[in-house]
Amino acid sequence: MDVVSQINKAVEFVKNEDYKSAEEIYLKVLESSPNNHIVLSFLGFLYITTKDYSKAENFFEKAYGLSQDNTIISGLALSKFLLQKFEDCIPFYVNLIKNDDKCDYYEKITLALCSIISTGKKEYLKMAYDYSYAGINKFPMNKELLLNYSITCIYTGRFKDAEKYCLDVLRLDPKFARAWNHLGIIQESLYVDEEKAQECYKKAIKYNETPSYNYDLGISYSKSGKYSLATKYLKKAYQKLPDLDIVLLGLAFNYFRQRKFKEGYKYYIQHKGLGDVRKLKNLWDGKKHKKSTLFVYPDLCYGDHLMFIRYIPYLKDKFKNIKVLAFPQLIDLFKNSFAGIEFVDYFPEYDYSVVLSKLPYYLKMDFNSIPNSEGYLKVDKEQKINKKLKIGLCWEAGNADIRTTIHRTININEFSNLLNLDYDFYSFQVNPSSNDYQNYNLIDLGPNFDTFYDTAKALKDMDLLISVDTSVANLAGAMGIKTFMLLPYYSDWRWFDNVEKTEWYDSVRIFKQSEKNSWQKEISDIIFELTKLSQK
Fold this sequence. Notes:
- This protein has helices at 3-15, 19-32, 37-49, 53-66, 70-82, 86-99, 103-117, 125-138, 143-155, 159-172, 177-191, 194-207, 211-223, 227-240, 245-257, 261-268, 302-308, 331-337, 359-362, 402-408, 416-419, 452-460, 471-478, 520-534; strands at 289-297, 319-325, 342-344, 352-355, 390-394, 424-427, 442-444, 464-468, 483-487, 508-512.
- Helix 14 (227-240) packs antiparallel against helix 15.
- The model has no long low-confidence stretch (mean pLDDT 93).
- It is globular.
- The strands form 2 sheets. Strands 7-6-5-8-9-10 form a 6-stranded parallel β-sheet, with helices on both faces. Strands 3-2-1-4 form a 4-stranded parallel β-sheet.
- It is of the alpha/beta class.
């Protein structure tokens, strides 16, 4: 077989968009020459053209095992990128940039890194910023790289730079939809201006309607209480991407905000989650299986784990054994609080499985019947009597979801008037982002916390916790400890439209932000409440 003539023939078929004939030729050549890395790579690029990215990755992997040619590395990186295996594609783009720093490689690596850090993986922040910065220095007029740099600026706290470079991009191309969408995120995150954000999202949709832009507009409408419009745009995204978790969650949370339990869980139970959650087998149907073992898998974050663990005791009459996978930092606390439940840090043998945050649905406990609001977590520690009020303080939220975390975090200096009062203040903040807290009379407990059981024992000694919306506030509420929780103007769905009390925790009092960019009223209100407490 004349391999060269066959390849040339296949290339002509590709030019004429006869991909089936080209594929047949390439596969025929591989029957006689299975280790021909050129043909393997040509097949890989063919499958990228036909959007069969899994096949493309497979053939590029085989080609890469035979030759580390830049073209093959590029194809392998691209196939992984298109499969959204962003962490996997990064090393290949790093390699390519070292060998031949083309603009396309910078575009892909920075976009991949931006996608990774948007999921909350802070360890990629510096790499994202460094490659974005290197990219705009080498290609200063490339709008994709300028926009990616703007995105990394947001995640590294360079908000003014983020806005400046995004506006620079729009001056280069006023119809660049992705830049308009990003400017909407900036309006939300930096200025808490949902109306301007919505205008930006509408322009993005005008120039290039994609499901992600409809999703962002829908989320903005939901945050600002415009639920009908939110549903309209989120459903547009859902129609195009019915299996995408972020869209399913957006729709679910939009309904949850309105306390529409059934409508929200219709979408929530469809979301598959990330990582090991996709390995779950024999999903529970909500019925009794008295001779079987149920495995409960925790999803989402620490705060959610602490909040939804309240439902575990209601499984006891439905299964012989219940095994709960728990974050290592939570296991001791949970073991001390729930007798007859096995808490593990590995995947055990089981008959049925369920995701922790889906328990309310299967237990048929809606938001009007939230159980154990008086508290359900216990620690073995007696509270010490103190002459002064002992007050815990937590001022930073703990993940990198830029859309919400930035507003759930309060600069420690905002509490200066509070911290000058004659009480004993204790920091419950672990690894704060700055050392400004050292300027105040604040006893730092954070370094003592290896697990949440340690945090819980310290909370037991407090008369009061003052906290932003974070896992420590959920822990205090779950222990029945008096808590003043500061909620931002646009708060998370689980607090519904509450401005003072919450159905989740009897001991938690809400201080809801009344002005978008100021916490002074709420902190002044807390100072007034402390004055009343100290007079008792």
